[in-house]
What does this fold into?
Amino acid sequence: MTIAEDLPPEHEYDGTLARYYDAYFTGLDGEAEFYTNLAVASSGPVLELGCGTGRTLIPIAEAGSQISGLERSGSMLDRARQRIGILAPDVGARVDLHSGDMRSFDLGRHFDLITLPYRTFQHLLTVDDQHRALDCICRHLAPGGRVALNVYDPLMDISRLLTNPTDPEPATDAEFTDGEGHRVRARYLRGYDPANQWMVQHFWFDQLEGKQTVETLQARLTLRYAFRFEMEHLLSRHGLRVVSLAGGFGGEAYEGWGEQVWVAAQT
Ligand SMILES: C[S@@+](CC[C@H](N)C(=O)[O-])C[C@H]1O[C@@H](n2cnc3c(N)ncnc32)[C@H](O)[C@@H]1O
It folds into this structure.
């Protein structure tokens, strides 16, 4: 068994998670369409921070927008490059990829829309990290440009665990076929570090032959959660005006927990 417990957060996506990302992390309902529609509606180039393997970046390029992707993990970026390399030439030509950290980047140009899909903002694990990333975002926004992101607020999940603690046992979350044709069972367990507002997700990937597990790879993701008015304060501290907050990608009302889908504009 490969243990990922001592992996620093900067390397959580390298290796195991990059290997299974496209097959297992398939996104949230309506998410890719939501970001694509915003990109199409915006008049100029788009930047995606933490673009990963291109899951949401590729549909935006296919819809006709010019899009840049910034990504910290070399393994994720390699996969994105492979996927973009086989797109139609006119689509591939609309994409440029950059290795970098969303807390300290300078692409030397401005964007009409900056996106952080699939809870990427939650990889900013401290308030200082959040401010540094928002500083960079604001420096890269064109006048009137917008930033769109979603974060998950696990209030109800934490309340449930506090009032009804159970023995932590990883539960089977999904079974899928990986890129090499292997059958894989994913098991998952979520824990909390409330003092830091961290949600720690543990993953076990059992590679199966028939019903037998022949190998198990382990991975972990550490995410910082944020509450509604914390997000609103963060955005306003950086001169960003809230355009909309929804509880889902179909414009559902935000009810105080769960997904927060934010669009904010430079004032
Ligand atoms: C949840 S994945 C989202 C990937 C892609 N946007 C998608 O929707 O599938 C988060 C991505 O952000 C990247 N990431 C995390 N922290 C980062 C940082 N400080 N700078 C740049 N990328 C980062 C991770 O390596 C990972 O690929």
